[in-house]
Amino acid sequence: MPRRRAINDVSIAYKPYLLEFMAFYHERVQPYPKETVFEQDILVGIKPRDIERWMCKKVYGVPDPGLDDHPIHGRSSSLEFYKKALSYFMPNKRMGWNEVTQAGNPTKSSEIIDRIKKVKKEEVRKTGKKSSARQPLEHREFKQSLAILERDPDPIKRFLAPCVNKVQYNLIARLDDAMELEFEDIKPNLHFPFSLLVHMCWSKNVNEERDAGEQILLGSMRREYCILLALAMYLEVWIGSGNGMLGTLLFNIVDDDPIKSKKRVADIMAEVYKHRDFERIKEGPVGTHSVRKLPATHARRFGCSKDDTDHRGRWRRKKRQSDDYVDMVLPYPDAKVASKLCIGGPCMYALKADCGVSDDWLAEFVVPNIRRRFPREVGMVLGRALLWASFDAEVKEILPPALSNRIMTAYAAIRRLPARG
Predict the structure, then answer these.
(1) How confident is the model at residue 135 (pLDDT cuts 50, 70, 90)?
(2) Are 145 and 278 in contact, with CB atoms under 8 Å apart?
(3) Of the candidates 86, 156, 382, 408, which lies 20 to 30 Å from 65 by C-alpha distance?
(4) End-to-end CA distance of the chain
(5) Rounded to two decimals, what is the model's pTM?
(6) What is the mean pLDDT of the chain?
(7) How far apart are CA 172 and CA 215, in angstroms?
């Protein structure tokens, strides 16, 4: 079951729109206070036309638009959200709207549905408001953003933020989902010990336990996309600094609070997207949601079905009877999409037979900090990735000198030891 939610009561998010509508409905100049509670008999009296006029005011600028008025102040997606928000508070919210008896849920009336369709049609004809939706990042833009972060001396920007981005990419996740991950959500994969499993319990579309299955984390041949390498670098540095020993969240920046930590990462990425070295390929706004759109688009372009992509991204699907009989853990569809997201192909970090490196050596010299918070099996997967990073000229420049020197010195020592005979 999901262990936590950033907003436990959705009325917190929906209430401002109800207050705004009711002020319009009652022709009030001043808005209603936040603590206002409306009686059921008042809400029952709301008609579809009342809601439609308020929606028109929001998107057209006038409650009764004429033929020459166009929805230049809002989008159909906004109307869909307003409809959802108001519906939450309607006394008969689970009912449709009965035109004869004038009873039910007014947000489900044909008037509201037709108005939203009309606004959509105007958007298609370019007479509505221009979309402000976040555009998907392109691969070149994704790598540019990582390069900007990895040049920054601040460990939050150099290690934490890139790791969050790669979690979003590999799991087709929202920033909210990534920031809710806890240390205990990263687990060893006993069937495929070169990989890891993650249990992303908190997600917008995860409403029951069977929706939250374990998902695989694979290494990638291109280091910019390798989640195992990113986790190894981030965790060894972050735990070693003492920050990673505080709280339960994997990406804890502020008070073990996912909302505050998310805001910090979102602010960092906003700075990156405005950086002089970040060059947009296509016009349009970008944000943290753009990171999720990149892998979703990439998976579909490279042959993954919509169902498999939705499964990896934990998107809600239309329920089928067979869902009750199918296990929530589906390793093949999940691994199929995960492998497609590994640019250059998936990889396994493996030790050469005669290198002299043992698991005990990795635990002592490569990932001693990671072993303080993770099982041995997780430490070994990340330890092999970090060992490789210490000898790669490009990645070595990102690591703190103390960390790379510790590993290389220890490795040089075992290479000088006489062979066991």
Answers:
(1) confident
(2) yes
(3) 86
(4) 54
(5) 0.81
(6) 90
(7) 11
